[in-house]
Design goal:
The protein is mostly beta strands. It has one helix and 32 strands. Mean pLDDT is about 85; it is low at about 1-30 and about 300-305.
Length: about 400
Amino acid sequence: MKNKVTFFKQSIIVLSISVFINTTVVPQQFGSRIDMGIIESDEINEASGIEASSKNPGVFWTFNDSGGENKIYAFSSTGKDLGSYKINGSSNVDWEDISIGPGPTENEYYIYIGDFGDNGHHRTYKSIYRIIEPFVDTLQSKVDTALDGVTRLVFKYPDEIKYNAEALMIDPLTNDVYVVLKDDITRVFRATKPDSFHWVPDWIVDTLEVVDTLVFRSKANAADISDSGTEILIKDDDFVYHWYRDSTESVAETLGRIPKVLPYVKEPNGEGICWAPDSSGYYTFSEGLHPHLYFYPRIVTSISEEYIYPSKFELEQNYPNPFNPSTTIKYSIPNVENENLHSVQLIIYNILGREVATLINQEQSSGNYQVQWDGKNDNGTRVSSGVYFYRLIAGSFIITRKMMLLQ
């Protein structure tokens, strides 16, 4: 075996130790959790890790923890079982986290799976698998299929210490892969770019680089970087930690700052967190048969600490879509000269064109806004499943989009 192993020794750099024991919770940025529904699949019984798809809107991915099959499972934002996808050539020793990010093919999405769990601290070599994300439709029937073309990064930690990890992040700005330890001192390790991934069964080992050392109240069990690369989440058993990141900063520089603590209701064995693809909030997930999918919506008008005024009227596609029980609608009011306020209406209509609910009817200044619709009419009664339309009216600007409610 030794003659088949090539070691790439990288320098070990400890950049900082960040202690944030007394960080305060900042609830005004994100709202209370919303129960999106129960996961239907009977195969998902020890989920560890979750990721929301940008390639397939409304689709989520997960897998089972150690001892599970080498399969990933797709489900919708309403919990609908969309099927299982076996990853040929992989093995599930102790899969712990899942992420989606860029890879060697431009404009393609890749699923990354962290096979680096090691509760007994006996595995010298760990793996991260990477495979192109398949196309999935939220309206499809449950499938049972297999995926080919997996590649693998085999790695060890500096000094061959047998750490346990449960969190994986992919930086969309650099393609770097980050592993976050589940340890008393929460170190973060980096594998630079996707170059170290090789076709299975090639066995080439990389030594990861220490990029930061954090101190949590508890041990990190999930993490995610937003699609924009500008926000980072790391959670432990009790808290969700949040960093804003300037696009010119490295992940290490960002993690060197004290984070904010976001709203989180503790879940039993809650080992999953991910951003919504549009950064409208974050999702959490736990182990067990038929777990709930929870969503924490963003409630501020801008995700940036340096506010940028929009240049035009915009009404974005709601997310998630299809949805149950609620969805988020985002829109923008531009900074028009000599017009400080705009009369704004946001109205929901059914497929017959009848008004169902008025979400906004007021004057608003320039800015980026978002509002949630809980699937109820103006009388507080939940409406039936079906196609609905939402219309933004701001002066002479009128635009309508379609959405689907699934009960």
